[in-house]
């Protein structure tokens, strides 16, 4: 949670309802060949109108120049110091697929891979083996026994899986076995901390046994690569901290995982934003805070497709009408990080946001990176956003006499 | 003091004179029915002219979204971390009325109240009993004896008083006896800390004796409510920290209290801003830093009176001419927090400020929330303002070789 020790004393209950829509990879930058950012190019009548009635600004997820992953980006939006509360990939992906990960367990993200006869890595993704095949491989891995621990392997999508190691004396302070390179052997796992050598030996034994087992099959993979070893951190509960009955509506596993980890209730199993909005409608009366996640803008940005990102933003703008109709007391549109199509990956750029409420202090009339920088809230740290959202919802009282 | 350990090494004496005018509740927000903020609506020829010769910006007193009380708002302006150096209400109001509060004493803000026959609170303010009456009641309370401590009760205004408990072994870590509710009995005081049980028992004994004593009178109150138990924190001295011979000129008790607490000398007993300016003139040669407090803008904002706040700002602008004529080397106009009349209370909105000196770096030509956001100093933390003021006064030397 944000470093403000008096937060519990200033948070107050109120009858207002907050809908926070996180547009993944919302921000961009000018594509030099176009002279505009994706938001500037897009036709966004609903967002632009909202902007004229909202307090606007841009948020810096971690630090200027630092490009956040989805984890830190979202943690900051929810008011958590993204550095102090860094979440490991294993835990995040595990929670996202509903894995049970205890507070003493260690989780990792796994890839099925292909190895050449000499043991060197040929393909880190096993020729992008599809889910049908990998589910069978996961079954095989679940037969592996390692003394002193219980092993649980869960399929994610295609060549991806999650490994959860359960047992006493485990530590996530171990090195990764995915070298993120090809043409080299699978590296041995080693302990980074004194207390982690048992865990490293478990990982090495598991990896060796997996290789032997997979090599006997004809299912398209003959090795595994593990990364993102992590445990469940001790996180303040979002609902308790802000006195909210908070729900999450997301289609992708990782965002559900983050939401669950901080104590939000995941609603429904929507598979796209339209279905997410239907879930929001169906549950609108049951919660006072909704985190709704929109993914396509990030995907288009990562593909380096300027026009596709523009289209995904326009599609979002159109869908937003349905949420505006529900008239939440506070409607927030924000992003976990920027994903400029010009860079075709996450980036460090500050992310525009708007907070629409009866306290909307509107200075601008277009929703884009440059306009929002001139908004009434200027440039803030990502983790400060929730304070502003709470203030706009009449949920914070005065600090100090 | 601001978290900059090298401050003592960069502060230097110089012959320049600083006048810092704090306009209480200076900032506002757009009233949607008007489309402008109070500052934007007001006719402010002197402030606007100053702006064209000043370095301008907006200050965030505590954190974005956090609404500060007067204490944190002023502490930030004087360069103190407003969270680390949070002042209790009892101490603040006590100093403001000239109470002597030693470093081991405990002070509280008290209300005279009325209780029904069943002991439940009927009116937390005793029908807003006026000062004439409450002075008599205060005299009665001063007759109460509690073993092991000395009790001093001082009248504030109307139904308000300050209680100062003096003696060995006291601690302010006790619960309040003002439930901020009616229809319930006066809560017992209890210790929040191991070392505070004696103090809690003193408060309970005092409250019981006060009830019995007041019930014998016909002076309009038959109980007392206590809150804001606090001791005098160990604060860095403002004059020593900045090598200034600083004076405060204020009409209201709380602001005098804060000034005295950090080591400023309170000058005169002005009862309005015109008299404050006269005090400034009379003492102009004797100090090199003046904190001058203007209250009416906050009062109008708290009353939710847009036009009254506009009028109070215009009145301030007119009075400011007298200060400009004195030609201080550095003239600062700033605010402890915003008080938008639309919200009719303190708010979280950033507060415009200007620093006029020969180093004025002017980018804008109007003094309001939006313009100042575009000023050369942008958006700063409130506690950073003093550094900028000192820099504009040639009172800071280079940091590091």
**Major β-sheet annotation of chain A:** 8 strands, mixed
Classified in CATH, the superfamily of the largest domain in chain A is Alkaline Phosphatase, subunit A
Low-confidence stretches of chain A: none
Q: Oligomeric status of the shown chains?
A: homodimer
Q: Give helix % range of chain A.
A: 25-40%
Rg of chain A computed from alpha carbons, rounded to a whole number of angstroms: 22 Å
Largest interface: A-B, 28 and 38 residues
- The CATH class name of the largest domain in chain A reads Alpha Beta
Provide keyphrases for this structure.
401 residues; 31% helix; Alpha-Beta Plaits; alpha/beta; Alkaline Phosphatase, subunit A; homodimer; 8-stranded mixed beta sheet; 18% strand; 2 domains; 5-stranded antiparallel beta sheet; 14 helices
Topology diagram in text:
2 copies of one chain form a homodimer.
Chain A: H1 7-10, E1 18-23, H2 38-41, H3 45-51, E2 54-60, H4 70-77, H5 89-96, E3 106-115, E4 121-123, H6 131-141, E5 150-155, E6 160-166, H7 197-215, E7 223-230, H8 238-242, E8 246-249, H9 253-261, E9 265-266, H10 273-282, E10 289-294, H11 296-302, H12 306-325, E11 330-334, E12 351-356, H13 369-373, E13 378-381, H14 385-392
Parallel strand pairs in A: 1-10, 1-11, 2-13, 8-9, 8-10
Antiparallel strand pairs in A: 2-12, 3-4, 3-6, 3-7, 5-6, 11-12
Helix pairs in contact in A: 5-9, 10-12, 11-12
Summarize the structure in words.
The structure is a homodimer of 401-residue chains. By secondary structure, chain A is an alpha/beta fold. Chain A folds into two domains: 14-85 and 235-392, Alkaline Phosphatase, subunit A, CATH 3.40.720.10; 92-230, Alpha-Beta Plaits, CATH 3.30.70. Chain A has helices at residues 7-10, 38-41, 45-51, 70-77, 89-96, 131-141, 197-215, 238-242, 253-261, 273-282, 296-302, 306-325, 369-373, 385-392, and strands at residues 18-23, 54-60, 106-115, 121-123, 150-155, 160-166, 223-230, 246-249, 265-266, 289-294, 330-334, 351-356, 378-381. In chain A, the strands form two sheets. In chain A, strands 9-8-10-1-11-12-2-13 form an eight-stranded mixed β-sheet, sandwiched between helices. In chain A, strands 3, 4, 5, 6 and 7 form a five-stranded antiparallel β-sheet that branches. In chain A, strand 3 (106-115) and strand 4 form a beta hairpin. The A-B interface holds A 2, 4-6, 10, 359, 361-363, 374, 376-380, 384, 386-391, 396-401 and B 29-30, 58, 62-72, 82-83, 86-89, 92-93, 109, 228, 342-343, 345-350, 369-370, 373-374, 378-379.
């Amino acid at each position: 949670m944000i470093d403000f020790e008096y937060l519990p004393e200033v948070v107050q209950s109120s009858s207002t309802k907050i809908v926070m829509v996180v547009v993944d990879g919302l921000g961009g930058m000018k594509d030099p060949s176009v002279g505009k950012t994706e938001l500037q190019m897009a036709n966004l009548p609903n967002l632009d109108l909202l902007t004229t009635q909202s307090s606007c600004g841009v948020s810096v997820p971690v630090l200027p120049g630092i490009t956040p992953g989805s984890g830190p980006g979202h943690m900051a939006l929810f008011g958590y110091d993204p550095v102090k509360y860094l979440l490991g990939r294993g835990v995040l992906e595990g929670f996202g697929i509903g894995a049970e990960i205890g507070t003493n367990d260690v989780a990792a993200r796994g890839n099925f891979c292909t190895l050449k006869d000499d043991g060197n890595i040929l393909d880190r993704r096993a020729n992008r083996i599809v889910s049908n095949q990998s589910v069978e491989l996961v079954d095989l891995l679940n037969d592996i026994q390692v003394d002193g621990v219980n092993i649980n392997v869960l399929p994610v999508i295609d060549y991806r899986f999650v490994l959860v190691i359960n047992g006493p004396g485990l530590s996530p302070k171990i090195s990764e076995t995915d070298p993120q390179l090809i043409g080299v052997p699978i590296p041995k796992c080693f302990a980074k901390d004194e207390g982690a050598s048992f865990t490293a030996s478990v990982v090495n034994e598991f990896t060796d046994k997996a290789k032997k087992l997979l090599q006997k099959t004809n299912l398209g993979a003959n090795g595994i690569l593990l990364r993102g070893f992590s445990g469940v951190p001790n996180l303040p509960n979002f609902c308790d901290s802000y006195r909210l009955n908070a729900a999450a509506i997301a289609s992708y596993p990782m965002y559900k995982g983050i939401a669950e980890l901080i104590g939000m209730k995941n609603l429904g199993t929507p598979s796209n934003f339209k279905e997410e909005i239907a879930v929001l409608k169906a549950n609108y009366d049951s919660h006072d805070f909704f985190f709704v996640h929109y993914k396509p803008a990030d995907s288009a940005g990562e593909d380096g497709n300027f026009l596709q990102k523009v289209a995904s933003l326009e599609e979002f703008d159109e869908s937003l009408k349905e949420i505006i109709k529900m008239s939440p007391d506070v409607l927030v549109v924000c992003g976990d990080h920027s994903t400029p199509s010009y860079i075709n990956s996450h980036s460090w750029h500050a992310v525009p946001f708007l907070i629409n409420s009866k306290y909307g202090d509107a200075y601008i009339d277009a929703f884009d990176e440059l306009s929002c920088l001139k908004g009434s809230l200027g440039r803030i740290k990502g983790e400060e956003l929730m304070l502003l959202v709470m203030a706009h919802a009449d949920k914070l009282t005065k600090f100090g006499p």
